[in-house]
Every structure is written in C-alpha cells, then in structure tokens.
Amino acid sequence: MRTPPIGQIVLAARTLFAGEQSVNREFFSLATQRSGEIALTNWRCCLEAGDSIAHFALGYTFYELGRYHEAYRHLRYYAQIAPASI
After folding, report:
1. What's the pTM?
2. Burial track 28-56 (b if 16+ CB lie within 10 A, e otherwise)
3. How many Cα neighbours within 13 Å face the side chain of 71?
4. What is the rounded CA–CA span in Å between residue 86 and residue 61?
5. 50 within some domain
6. CA-to-CA distance for 50 and 1, rounded, in angstroms?
7. Are 50 and 27 in contact (CB under 8 A)?
8. What CA–CA distances, in Å, run from 20 to 15, 23, 75?
9. pLDDT tens digits, one per residue of 8-57
10. Which of 4, 13, 44, 67 lies 20 to 30 angstroms, CA to CA, from 58?
11. How far is it, in rounded angstroms, from Cα 50 to Cα 58?
12. Is residue 12 part of a domain?
C-alpha cells in the first residue's frame, strides 16, 4: 500500500470538514471557555477525541481544583510526549 501525497491528504481533510472544526477542536474550544468540573468534562472529551494536549489542560485544571494526584499523572504524561513545551 502506498502513502498518498500530502496534498491529497489536505484536500481530503478540507472536503471532509468543509470549514467546520474537528470533534477534538470543538471540545477544546468549549473547555477553554469553562472552568472547574465542566472544563474537566470537556478536556476529557477532547482527550478521548485524540488531542493529546488535553493531558496538559487536564493537569492544570486538576491542579487549580487542588486535585494534585490527578494533575500529576496528566502533567507527567504530557512532559514525556512534549518535553520541549515545559
């Protein structure tokens, strides 16, 4: 099986989304407008939709809520996948 050229992938994605956001971006947008438990729910959905930056957001949201043990595992994971971001 051959890999399609990047131009074909971009064209297919543009056609699929037709100017709309992907599911993970929708949850990301919602989460950034919320706080507390509602933000956690949206960040979890964002993560489940495949956006690994949600680990960072979950970490800092748990931290803000004083839930340090839960924050640690997400922040540690994010530090491993994106060490230059820290």
Report:
1. 0.76
2. bebbeeeeeeebbebbbbbbeeebebbbb
3. 11
4. 16
5. yes
6. 25
7. no
8. 10, 9, 30
9. 888 887 887 787 888 989 999 999 999 999 999 999 999 999 999 999 99
10. 13
11. 14
12. no
What confidence score (pLDDT) does residue 1 get?
A: 76
CATH of the domain at 34: 1.25.40
**Three-state secondary structure along the chain?**
CCCCCHHHHHHHHHHHHCCCCCHHHHHHHHHHCCCHHHHHHHHHHHHHCCCCCHHHHHHHHHHHCCCHHHHHHHHHHHHHHCHHHC
The sign of the CA dihedral 64, 35, 28, 32 is negative
